[in-house]
Here is the input.
Amino acid sequence: MSEGRKINPWLKAGLEFGPLILFFVVFLKLKDRTVHLGATDYSGFIVATLIFIPVLVATTLILWRLTGRLSVMQILTLVLVVVFGGLSVWLNDPRFFKMKPTIIYLIFAGLLGFSLILKRNWLQLVLSEAIPMTTEGWRILTLRLTLLFLALAGANEIVWRTMSESTWVSFKTFGLPALFVVFFVLNGKLFDQYAIKPDEKPGNPSE
Here is the structure.
């Protein structure tokens, strides 16, 4: 599978994380204010969401234009942000946007788990060129990532339902990305143990 065109990693990181940081900054500035738009009063959270949606659309399109490809997660995230963020703004109800990470993680946990049941490792098909590992290594990583997505879905539900809005925004902006980084760091030994040596051929992910 083609990895697309390479771009400056700092530019790529800015396009991927910039909208989320902007959402965080706008929320901090407006969290204690009510903004009157048209005939309706909106909380700072809703206004931050309203700004976040078109910015994410724009940066995703720019990223696609520059690299020539988007990952499944990027596409799904964009669709769910537009749908659930749009519902939050339209109905003036922040709960829809707060549920969005839960739904994303459950969808990916379901897809990865289903691929394990079918013994067709879709994660390996997508990332095998970037991370060369044996089929067994990909099976273990997929299982662990499935469990991670389930855990993150549960964590998101707990945080947004039981804690303050500010806590959830901080968790969403910094906590969730940090947990992914920690996950892959902790799996460093897995990548080393099951790495494909130059004289080896990877197994068929559909086997």
User: Anything to note?
Assistant: The mean pLDDT is 89. The chain has two domains: 1-93, 94-207. The radius of gyration is 19 Å.
